[in-house]
Amino acid sequence: MSIEAIQNEIIDEFSMFEDWEERYQYMIDLGKDLPLIKDQYKTDSNIIKGCQSKVWVHAEMKDDKIEFTADSDAIITKGIIAILIRTFSNQHPKDIINANTDFIDKIGLKEHLSPTRANGLVSMVKQLKMYAIAYQTQLN
Amino acid sequence: MFNVEDIRKDFPILSRKVNGKPLVYFDNAATSQTPQQVIDAIVDYYSNYNANIHRGVHTLSQEATDLYEQSRLKIQAHFNAKFSHEIIFTSGTTHSINLVANGFSSLLKKGDEIIVSALEHHSNIVPWQMLCKRTGATLKVIPMNEDGELVMSEFDKLLSENTKLVFVNHISNALGTINPIEYIIEKTHAVGAAILIDGAQSTPHMKPDVQALDVDFYVTSAHKICGPTGVGMLYGKEAWLKKLPPYQGGGEMIAEVTFEKTTYADLPHKFEAGTPNICGGIAFGAAIDYMNAVGFDNIAAYENELLEYSTEKLLEIDGLKIYGTSKHKTSVISFNLEGIHPYDVGTILDKLGIAVRTGHHCAQPIMDFYKIPGTVRASFAFYNTKAEIDILVEGVKKAKMMLS
């Protein structure tokens, strides 16, 4: 499925929720459920330090697609990571480079991707793109 | 008579809503809210007196200068400084600290020692590290205990004839601990060193008397005491301020300039280069007036009531741990829910209209001591209520339910 199609699917899922509590509870559950990263990759070199929460990201190339795994010490951050990973993982580097994260606004979670939020998520998105650029260079 | 409902009417922001809920503002240790009286002073200044000060012969400049200097006198009286020129207007606590640190760079040499406390804010550690790097002096740290108190017996051991400067906050921003500064000042002077106290967290709750304390330097920011941001003060004993070299070059701080030589202006102007934050300085005075009208005895008594009430109510929540359990505390509660990240708790509370601080509160060494990533910090002011604390307690319960 294309990144855009997945993002539209997520927008649809979130449109069913009536208030912030349902949206957040869903996000928290996503954060709880997913085994996001292998312990061996939860290293200092994979860490993105936000002022508020920490994020770990690991990338691997599989059949010309990048597989991302990630984690955070805060569960709400982790929930958003789960959403981001769902859209960006197992995609071609070129598509990741060209993708945007506007859908986060549409599901009412805009504040979590604000550059001033300092939870590490904005840096994480940048990091995902950096990996994509690096792998794309390898493919060329 | 202290009536919190009347007081709340002075603060327009307290009637706004956040995320559809009435604002519950418990981030007072970061910045306090502004009463109408201070807002009026700001509007009045720009509506009627705006001019550059200390240099114009025209009426407007004279009036603005008078207001600015009157504000300095108010601050002098409030802190009981001996002379008004011992009050230096700065952009805030951090600026004040840097001014002193910079001044000491010409007074220190290799082998000299500076002592700071383990309870410091980042902004208070960095200038001293920079100073040590410049001068070859060494930084020593007074350790803390499990209750979040400084260990005085260890402080005694750190003091020696090599000690040149001791720097401690009056009250810890992260934990609310009131440090025994009377003891620290006395011991520091006994070895002939200078003492600088950071009053950013104390001045909202008490009225320090710099002469009675016999402190060499005392600093704070106006925005912690119901004033505007971007302005603060450095109190320094006259002898020390004369000894320290100017911090920044520019207008206002000079007496005479030729290309060969510059003579510096007298105190306080020596440290006030350039056009100052005139409006901010005047509003700082208005904030001091406001706080004194409410009365510091009333403020301290009422805030203590809020602290006791909230401590009791929050501790009823299973798995909630409070960090900073000194008997000598101001109205700050730093806490965590077992197994839950403070960022998550803060995010849920924000959705409920409750403003708290989460994270390391710019005091990472304290968080390292407790081996936690941070805390949720609720800090109360005299305009908060027990009803608001009830909302916080319910909010924390809800966060716990959603997150565990």
Secondary structure layout:
The complex is a heterodimer of chains A (140) and B (404).
Chain A: H1 3-15, H2 20-33, E1 47-49, E2 54-62, E3 65-72, H3 75-88, H4 93-98, H5 103-106, H6 121-139
Antiparallel strand pairs in A: 1-2, 2-3
Helix pairs in contact in A: 1-3, 2-3
Chain B: H1 4-9, E1 17-18, E2 21-22, E3 24-25, H2 36-49, H3 59-79, E4 87-90, H4 93-104, E5 113-117, H5 122-135, E6 138-142, H6 152-158, E7 163-169, H7 181-190, E8 194-198, H8 210-213, E9 217-221, E10 232-236, H9 238-243, E11 254-257, E12 262-264, H10 278-294, H11 296-315, E13 320-323, E14 332-337, H12 342-351, E15 354-355, E16 357-359, H13 364-370, E17 375-379, H14 386-403
Parallel strand pairs in B: 3-15, 5-6, 5-7, 7-8, 8-9
Antiparallel strand pairs in B: 1-2, 4-10, 9-10, 11-12, 13-14, 14-17, 16-17
Structure description:
The complex is a heterodimer of chains A (140) and B (404). Chain A contains 6 helices and 3 strands. Chain A is α+β, with helices and mostly antiparallel strands and 140 residues long. In chain A, strands 1-2-3 form a 3-stranded antiparallel β-sheet. In chain A, helix 2 crosses helix 3 (75-88). The model of chain B has no long low-confidence stretch (mean pLDDT 95). The chains are: A alpha+beta (140), B alpha/beta (404). Chain A binds chain B through residues 20-21, 24-25, 28, 51-54, 73-77, 118-119, and chain B through 19, 340-341, 343-344, 346-348, 351, 358-360, 373-374, 402-403.
Summary?
Chain A has 140 residues and is an alpha+beta fold. Chain A has helices at residues 3-15, 20-33, 75-88, 93-98, 103-106, 121-139; strands at residues 47-49, 54-62, 65-72.
| Beta-strand residue percentage of chain A | 5-15%
Quick one: overall form of chain B?
globular
- As a whole number of angstroms, the C-alpha radius of gyration of chain B is 22 Å
With strands numbered from the N-terminus, the spatial order across the biggest sheet of chain B is 4-10-9-8-7-5-6
| Largest sheet properties of chain A | 3 strands, antiparallel
Order of helices and strands of chain A: HHEEEHHHH
Tally the helices of chain A. 6
Per the principal axes of the C-alpha atoms, what is the gross shape of chain A?
globular
Task: Give me the side-by-side strand order of the main sheet of chain A.
Answer: 1-2-3
Approximately how much helix is present in the residues of chain B? Answer: 40-55%
Q: Work out the largest interface and the residue count of each chain.
A: A-B, 16 and 16 residues
Category from helices, strands and their pairing of chain B: alpha/beta
Find the count of extended strands of chain B (DSSP E, 2+ residues).
Answer: 17
* Main β sheet profile of chain B: 7 strands, mixed
Q: Which segments of chain A are poorly predicted (pLDDT under 50) over 5 or more consecutive residues?
A: none
Report the end-to-end length of chain A measured between terminal Cα atoms: 23 Å
Instruction: Please report the number of helical segments of chain B.
Output: 14
Number of strands of chain A: 3
